[in-house]
Amino acid sequence: MTLYDLPLDALRSYRSASAEPDDFDGFWADTLARARSHDLGARFEPVDAGLTTVEVYDVTYAGFGGHPIRAWLVLPAGESGPLPVVVESIGYGGGRGLPHAHLLWASAGFAHFVMDSRGQGSMWSEGVTADPVGSAPSHPGFLTQGIEAPETFYYRRLITDAVRAVEAAHAHPRVDAARTAVIGESQGGGVALALAALLPGLLAIAPDMPFLCDFPRAVTITDHIPYSEVGNYLRTHRTSGERVRRTLSYFDGVHFAARCRAPALFSVALQDTTCPPSTVFAAYNAYAGRTKEIEIYDFNDHEGGGSVQQAAQLRWLPKMLAA
């Protein structure tokens, strides 16, 4: 794959044409108020995962609609706390998987909370959380489920689950709620942007190749999933374009980024055909926090920086969450 998007100089100044809805803040305030009307009920069940350097808890808590959401909490063994916490959302189609896949942040001395994505977890990493909410006709995948209205859209549920995941992580006695970071790749990066906007007390955010950003450009510049699901849906539902654009505007990472204040470490891959680099820069350029950086991987597709980016986060995040 060669470079196909804007040149880097143009990316650094690119601004999205995504139109923000007038009631964006009211929509999300109402959504979270409804979710918080349900008892969080966070439960932490110890799990013997055959690991000696970490302690693992199987977590259940109430997400959107009070629905049960699963997660892992991984803690460094023998650390009494309180520990800074890294809350992670998973990439598109994946689930929380198995505990031994989540050793990095606990090995660095952090509590690590990994949210399962409702209804996902059958494409590349196993999930166990069902989505009890039905959907009108949609294209295979998740990006068009309930897309005819923001109230029914799948990502209203997923982002709300993630807000409640941060609150569930804070419910554990060995977690220092005042030192919280959110991270994620792709879909997880897009969700992290939403969290940094909706939870102003976060100390850091690290979104890698974030999905769910600059929908007007994303759905027209790439024919890769997940963005291609929108075009495929509209190819059949020919009169739904305006309703779909309105729905997506409530979930665009560009609008969340404009409300974020926490220090941020982004990453982007310039040959990424899944989350085009212009859509990542759209969120980065809109990001309102005074402290922000972006790592650029010139010759990578959606695998991004991989372990090199993890090493960058390991250098950066401890400074952000220092006591």
From TrEMBL:
Cross-referenced Gene3D superfamilies: alpha/beta hydrolase
Active site, UniProt feature: S186, D272, H302
InterPro entries in UniProt: AB_hydrolase_fold (IPR029058), AXE1_dom (IPR008391), CE7 (IPR039069)
Binding positions (substrate): Y92
Residue intervals of the Acetyl xylan esterase domain: 1-318
A Pfam family reported for this protein in Swiss-Prot or TrEMBL: AXE1
One GO MF term attached to the UniProt entry: carboxylic ester hydrolase activity
GO biological process: polysaccharide metabolic process
Name of the molecule in the record: Esterase
Natural source organism: Streptomyces clavuligerus
